[in-house]
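This section describes the prediction task in plain terms. A model, or a person checking by hand, is given the sequence of a single protein chain and must write out its three-dimensional structure as a string of tokens. No templates, partner chains or ligands are provided. The sample shown here is typical of the held-out split.
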Amino acid sequence: MDNQLNFSDILKESTTSLTTGGSITIAGILVALSISLLCGLFIASVYRQCYQGVLFQKSYATTIVLVTLVTTMVIMVISGNLVLSLGMVGALSIVRFRAAIKDPLDIVYIFWAVGIGIANGVAYFSVSIISSIFIGLALLALTRIPSRPRLHLVIVNCQKEASSNIINKISSIGRKSILRSESVKDEICELVFEVQSFKDAHEYHEVNTIVGVEQVRVINYSANN
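The expected answer:
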């Protein structure tokens, strides 16, 4: 006797479950949503700590939390029900999301939130909690450890006779430095350096200690630095 269900049997059971209601309890719903809320808040806090852009968007952090909750709700509704699963796929196929993603890393947070919501929707709480902690620590480590030298544009205004000392000082600070421009007017010299260094921008203000230096400006090439 063949004990395997064919497609028509699965469809019949799903239809019966759809009309009679599922076995999800109110306590189970509250537990799943509560854990999803905590995980979503954790993801949002990691996003705040790892954000390297110019303007932090609180609305995006709120979106991360809501995506986690909504995904949990959807998975609890369609879990084990083929009819609802097919209906959800059809409904999502007509939805068009047109929000612009400015940073490719922002996509990672959305997928992270969706994954946690799916895990909590099927009551895999240990997977969601452990994965959130592991991914969060990985992101914090990757954003804190420089993977390549930072690129800076260092502009120094000084007296002409101090230019040689400034060039030597910039070379000692940076891993690699190139003098891109040198202009002189009325004994006032402007030097423009392109510098690669693992050090922060404030390290270049040591150039101010050189006699004859009037102003030092440091510009980052990338907002991720």
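For orientation: DSSP finds seven helices and four strands in the chain.
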